[in-house]
Task: structure prediction
Amino acid sequence: MIKSSNKMSATKRIAKNFSWLFIGSIVSGTLNFLLTIYLARVLHAAVYGLYSFVQAFFVYLVLFMDAGLPLLGTQEIARDRDKFGPLAINILAIRLVVACSIYIISAAIIIFSRMDSNLRWLFLSVFLLIFYRALIVDWLFQGIEKMEYMALARVAYAAATFGLIILIVRKPEDLLFAPLIQFVIGVLVSLSLLVVLFKRFLKIDLKFIALRTWPQIYLRALPLGAALILLQIYTNLDVIMLGFFDTKEVVGYYNAAYQLLNIMIASFAAWQAAVLPTAVRRLNSDLSAAKLFIDKYLRLSILIFVPLIVIVFILAPSLVAWLYGAEYAPAASALRYLIWVMVSIVIGSVHGITILIAAGKYNIFLKGALIGALVNIVLNFVLIPQYSFAGAAVATIIAEISAASYSIFYGRKIVKVAVLSGLWRPLLMVVPAMLAAWLAAFWVNNPFVAPYLESLVFVFVYALVVCLVEKEFIFSFIKELIKKT
Result:
């Protein structure tokens, strides 16, 4: 069935998987970002806006199709490898059936609607991507901790779609080719992954299909799916409400800042995806070992992401100017607000995903997402009319803190993770680094050079302090990485 990976230490396995996911995310993310810029230029504003409008609907179709099934599959397979075959086949079959149902219903609504024929064909073409998303099995490779296949599939899809769309889509009239290319390449990549899966890790056996278990599997995954929908709503709602209460330019500034925040969120998501299977096994076998592992994971996460937050805060104006141009200068202020949400995302996700989901507490995770969504909705109505994008950013931060607090409260009932000790040490280490960076900027007194010198000094002093204070912790981590298996 599955080759065991127990010979490799948990630390080394996580580092290997994270390396693959991180590199894959960087390469595929860069290609997707360049493709977005290319399409925006060749399609022009009106047609590209129409394409973005249709894609916004598609995101919610995917969420309803997924319904938390990939996350459930990853968690269950990581917990018990004996379930790999039956669970994999049944979840894959459920997703295909749901995808077909969604597409047929959506197509019927679109065909019988009174919309323009060009818009109708665009909807039908974009919605075909639901089949690619149903076939993708990266969640299975995550469950068995073979994440190199996930990374390679993402890069292959991004590279192929990028190359073909640039070759074929040259003017607004070529718009329909973009989703069709993505559909064909997506299906081919997904089928290739399935071939690898069935050839190397899973024997095809139609006896695994058990229709009577489908309602049970779907209902178990439903709280996860609902939570993901809520998360999608309250991460997008501030942009929508800014559109109602403020100008289009302000929406552009805020969205530009959010795209930069998403890069850091994606990096943390890759780090967390590499850790989840190990957390599942530890929580279901030995709680004391799970506590030690999650304490170490949280401590390392904060040591890595706190300085990144500070660096983005310092370099925000330079990053915005470099990527978007001088026109988007106000986005730097939005980014400087938004970047601090990463603190609550890191701590909250460690409890919400690495503990609650890993322990199978899906309903509690759903309630946390609901609390975050409600807080975000209320605060957006209160703060955006008066404070514009600053109010939207503050609403997002408070919503994330609310959801994180709920996850921490219930997560600690399972495993009492050392949150405060994991947080205050990095924060204290930031103080001398920030002081040194401020002195360097004050000494140079050049608005163009100062941010870069400030960042370099900060990184150097922070790294020095970390090596002195966390020497034992860092050396033990490195030792586990390089030791022979």
The CA atoms of residues 159 and 389 lie 35 Å apart. The chain is about 85% helix and 0% strand. The two ends are 22 Å apart (CA to CA). Residues 420-482 form one domain.
